[in-house]
Amino acid sequence: MTVPRIDHIGIIVADLDAATAMFARMLPGAPVETKDMPEVGLRIAFLEAANISIELIQYMDGGEDLAGRVMGAATGLNHFSVEVADLSRAAAELEAAGFKMMEGFPRPGAHGRVAFFERETATNILFEICEKEA
Hints:
Helices cover 22% and strands 38% of the residues. The protein is built from three helices and eight strands.
């Protein structure tokens, strides 16, 4: 696997609109994209800074099952994600290196396919790889 680009950091928030407004003041001019993902119980906003994206995540009512199992319920800094060109190949290489993919992954994410890896195999850090849609 080549050295990947860090794509984004994920932050769980209690109020997506308030958090988006705060980050928009902090990063004036940063483009914002909001996306509802009811199939996994999330509302998401992406803010594009010059060199990294910030993903703000709010649980929708009843949506904490899958998302909560993967990410946990605590608000605050949650995970980091790296972009890969070939998710299947990168996942196989990471698993060969001792990382364990979470059950139910890979699967569609906000901007393409994603896979999360068990915290226990990544020094208790939630780690995601993402393959962007073409």
